[in-house]
Design brief:
The protein has helices at 2-14, 17-35, 45-77, 85-95, 98-116, 133-149, 154-175, 208-228, 238-251, 254-272, 276-299, 305-314, 326-336, 378-408, 413-428, 439-451, and strands at residues 201-202, 206-207, 356-361, 366-371. By secondary structure, the protein is mainly α.
């Protein structure tokens, strides 16, 4: 009991209003934002999620700014005002981590792209997916605040586990053809996917590709929470993990399989082991297994869509139809990149390119045409919309975050599990796209990982998940 009281005393002493607001924001993203679909269900889920995220994140930023301003006024009134704005900003930049610096540069490039775009001012909100400069500003600013004032407290993990179980439970009910909460229009259900309507929708996220992206973040995180945390209560996480895997298998989204599988496997040398020699040995084993796998696929056509296409690709036979037409989309997008190489066409403006995709739908028995408004590869998407400068700063931010993860993971279970989840998300992003429906989870996890790095501007955390 004495130890518990001492922990509570330290907790209260270390608490600040800025940390409390950040924790509240994180909980709202994990609960209200994830589970809310709006009164019209899937009809306008994209608009609802964007508005909800803008409200939650915008409110968070304003409250944090208000608290910071009030603190500055109080310090100035007491004669402890500190440096003027330019020197203070320079000092803050010097204390920031490389991850935070590259995030700021990525935001500046995004606004430069938006302002120089031939489609300004549509680049502020975005043309088709609400991924304009406004959303990216909310992503980056919230990431910076969480990286400074965030704490990976136990309540986030356990709340996330409960919410994941609820989310997956809803998906499993929808697999039966039921329509709880009227998310589908009347008379339709999940069983009508690709027949009565284009695509497939599940849970409170909607598009199954986005569900795959979300699970690519959640599953590796849960796997390494089970491996690295020490308390017995962690075994309760088996429940949401099992449900997530059940949903992933049932909906059968290839990008989700790739993100979860490679995320868990590639993270093992970093997140699963703590000794340097063991980590190097595991990394070497993974390289050998990868080479053996590629060699097998090269010499053996395993059949099935995925392995047959990989076999053909390794033999230099790349067809536009591969990846359910993604290769065709990638080629079309790459052909347009040289028109605006440095800053791109502006955030979320691909709809104006009038590029179209034609494919045969075996369910409908006819050719289907759809407008290309995303590259179905997040990195290529950034290249098209924000140019080489945007892709360079975004990639540098991810590389710096990965470097911090590699250094922090041996001593920090929190960093290990967050990095594994982010790795899974980044892998599936090669075949998927970003939207305000799932991107907030990526940026929240990235902020918490950056906060766990000793090189960030975040104060050192006194509580870890193992002490729960």
């Amino acid at each position: 009991m004495r130890v518990k009281l001492e922990e509570i005393r330290i907790f209260l002493k270390s608490w600040s209003a800025l940390e409390g607001v950040t924790l509240a924001y994180s909980l709202l993203v994990l609960t209200v934002f994830l589970l809310s679909c709006g009164p019209e269900g899937y009809r306008h889920i994209m608009e609802w999620k964007f508005g909800l995220f803008a409200g939650l994140c915008g409110g968070y930023i304003l409250v944090m700014a208000g608290i910071g301003l009030w603190g500055a006024v109080k310090r100035r009134a007491s004669g402890k005002g500190g440096d003027a704005w330019p020197p203070a900003a320079f000092a803050l930049w010097k204390r920031s981590s490389w991850v935070q610096r590259f995030a700021v540069l990525y935001l500046l490039v995004t606004w430069g792209s938006a302002l120089c775009s031939p489609y300004w001012p549509e680049t502020v909100v975005g043309v088709s997916r609400y991924e304009g400069a406004l959303s990216i500003t909310l992503y980056v600013v919230s990431f910076l605040l969480v990286s400074i004032y965030g704490r990976a407290r136990p309540v986030l993990l356990w709340t996330g586990g409960v919410v994941l179980a609820l989310f997956c439970g809803l998906c499993l009910v929808q697999f039966t053809g039921a329509n709880p909460f009227g998310l589908f229009p009347e008379g339709l259900s999940y069983l009508d996917a690709y027949k009565a309507y284009s695509g497939a929708y599940l849970g409170t996220i909607g598009n199954v590709d986005l569900v795959g992206a979300f699970l690519s973040l959640a599953v590796p995180l849960l796997v390494y929470a089970l491996l690295r945390l020490q308390n017995r209560r962690r075994f309760w996480l088996v429940i949401p993990l099992g449900l997530c895997l059940w949903v992933l298998i049932r909906m059968s989204v290839t990008a989700g399989f790739v993100g979860v599988g490679l995320g868990c496997a590639l993270a093992f040398p970093v997140a699963g082991l703590t000794k340097k020699r063991s980590r190097l040995a595991a990394a070497g084993c993974l390289c050998v297994l990868a080479l053996l796998g590629l060699g097998t696929i090269y010499y053996v056509d395993g059949g099935g869509e995925l392995f047959h296409q990989l076999h053909q690709i390794l033999h230099g036979q790349i067809e536009d139809s591969f990846g359910t037409g993604r290769v065709y989309v990638w080629r079309q997008v790459l052909q347009r990149v040289p028109e605006h190489p440095l800053l791109g066409f502006g955030p979320d403006t691909m709809w104006h390119s009038e590029m179209a995709f034609h494919n045969y739908n075996p369910v409908l028995g006819r050719m289907a045409t759809s407008r290309i408004d995303t590259a179905h590869n997040e990195y290529l998407n950034v290249l098209y919309h924000q140019g080489l400068l945007g892709l360079g700063t975004f990639s540098a931010m991810l590389a710096a975050l990965a470097a911090d993860w590699i250094k922090s993971a041996p001593d920090s279970p929190v960093a290990a599990m967050l990095g594994a989840g982010l790795l899974g998300y980044c892998v599936q992003a090669f075949f998927s796209f970003s939207m305000p429906i799932t991107a907030p989870f990526f940026w929240l996890a990235a902020g918490l990982l950056a906060a766990s790095s000793p090189k960030g501007t975040a104060p050192s955390a006194k509580f870890t998940l193992d002490k729960s």
